[in-house]
Fold:
Amino acid sequence: MPYYGINLKNKGKVVKIKVFIDSGKLEEIKKAHSYGILDGVTTNPSLIRAAVEEVKKDGTEIDIKEYIIKILNLAKGLPVSLEVIGNTYDSMVEEGIKLFNMFNPIAKNVYIKIPVNPSFEENSKTDFDGLRAIKTLSDKNIPINCTLVFTPEQALLASKAGATFVSPFAGRIDDYIRTENKIEFKKSDYFPYMGYEVEDKTLEDNGVLSGIDLVAMIREVFDNYSIKRTKVLAASLRNPRQVREAALVGADIATIPFIVIKELVSHYKTREGMKKFTDDIVPEYEKLIREN
Ligand code: E4P
Structure:
């Protein structure tokens, strides 16, 4: 399938994609930043847990406040998302304000991550608490990254409530479609953006064919209404092709795990070409370039 199967509406316009790292690990953030390509950082409680466990692995104590301060200083000038842990309106608003007041003064780069719907059960009385918290916090000028977005409708509502970023979880949609259809997969396996076909039937989640299809739908809905204040942040990206496709469908931002960032730059022919060029260096050329 050629890439021009994907929406090319943005062709010719000046559109810039931003690259965030999806990690709570200081060393990974430091390295990605040193590559000169970093525009921001996203964390969530699971990523913070992985970071804390890594520090504690060799018996080192962690001061989580100091650790987060180090991340914020390192990412000075770049947005860093920190997630609340509550699942009611009151707790999320309280935690959002606390996190923002505690950490934003450090480098003025804190975004608060709020789930679009914090309920564990269907038809819960807290179903709208995420949107209500987004509205309250964004009215206080606290920038919000609305997380755990799985439909264009959720993204639209999050934008209306005032979110600065909406985070569609592309990889988890692909996981869900495969799991529901009893397809075995590894987390990093590619999932076709046009949908996974089984016996002439394209699998889907209520009309969403893939995680990238979800990102494309949100892009289109936002473009239909010229929604500019909310950026589409493609999250839960698991492999380089998914990052490529997030860019092709017009995501404003891609947040990428460190392991995938490393894969983005790799190609066998690049390595092979590099070796050949190195083998072909003649002394005259080397002398000209390397000697004063
Ligand atoms: C980022 O904001 C998300 O929390 C993250 O991308 C989730 O990724 P995962 O589905 O690989 O855990």
